[in-house]
Amino acid sequence: MDRGTVGSTSRRLSVEVRSHGASAVVIPAGELDHHTAELLREPLEACIDEGRTRVVVDCSQLEFCDSTGLNVLLGARLKAEAAGSEIHLSGMLPVVARVFEITGAESVFTVHEDVESALGD
Fold first, then answer.
1. Count of C-beta atoms within a 10 Å radius of residue 10
2. pTM of the model as a whole
3. Residues in Cβ contact with 24 at an 8 Å cutoff, skipping those fewer than 6 apart
4. In angstroms, rounded to a whole number, what is the distance separating the alpha carbons of residues 13 and 68?
């Protein structure tokens, strides 16, 4: 399901959620920043509230992530952990991976090369 698009054509984010048994794959596409963060927060929290044991965020279409976007992912990770679930990241483009590297956030997430390995781990 498409969760919507925010912003102009140059600054937008769309989010799709796909079920995979007890897991879910959340696919943000575009730019994750303070203008669009809520579009990702809502489906992540919904997946956790539904009792998904693993939520994979497929970052392969994520072109940009600022500190607000990073905080959405970190917050979802904490909420998932408290609920007995896990947040995994996959397919990070170098520009997004660099944000995680610089901030040290890569050390608190399990990061996979692709969705298949994130679901199969």
1. 7
2. 0.89
3. 17, 18, 47, 50, 52, 54, 55, 56
4. 14
The per-residue pLDDT for range 59-114, each reduced to its tens digit, is 999 999 999 999 999 999 999 999 999 999 999 999 999 999 999 999 999 999 99
Q: Please state the domain extents for the chain.
A: 13-120
- Report the interhelical angle of 67-82 vs 37-49 (nearest 10°): 10
CATH code matching the domain that covers 13-120, chosen among 3.30.750.24, 3.30.565.10, 3.40.50.2300, 1.20.1250.20: 3.30.750.24
Output the six-digit token pair for 2. Answer: 């498409």
Phi, psi torsion values for 118, nearest 5 degrees = -65, -35
Count, residues in the chain: 121
Residue 12: which of 66, 59, 64, 71 has the closest Cα? 64
d(CA 77, CA 93) in angstroms, rounded, equals 20
Contacts of 120 (CB under 8 A, 6+ apart): none
